[in-house]
User: Fold GNAT family N-acetyltransferase from Rheinheimera lutimaris.
Amino acid sequence: MRVSVRLRLATMDDADRLLQWRNDPDTRRFSLNAEHVTAQQHIHWLQQSLSDPQRRLYIAEYAGQPVGTARVDSTAECHRISWTVAAECRGKGLAKAMVKLLVSQLTGKIVAEILPGNTASVKVAQHAGLAHHSTHNGIMYYEYQTPV
Assistant:
């Protein structure tokens, strides 16, 4: 079954939803920063993220409903991507669809940092064309270089 998602840029109106997704126990378990985030910390981070020209923060929508988020941090060297899906929407192929769509919109080197044991994210990265490149300090690096 092919799942079709849409990516739209996040706004401050998404703050509560993004905080809920960020503090989900499974999201935190597989996050590079597993700390619980307060509402105040989150608002500050979101304001900075939305005004950072090197960061794009997206909300993934399926059937008109927000189902997850994806982020791209771009430098001259690469695009670092990350994502999460709302707990109630997991297991439906939405992450694969949104990350594949995100990767299709980028050019150059794309990198995802994934913690060992996060088999769902490994499958999502591989579905989007990323392959395991290396492991450093307990983080697996999945990469893809778009054709020139």
Notes: The first strand starts at residue 6 and ends at 9.
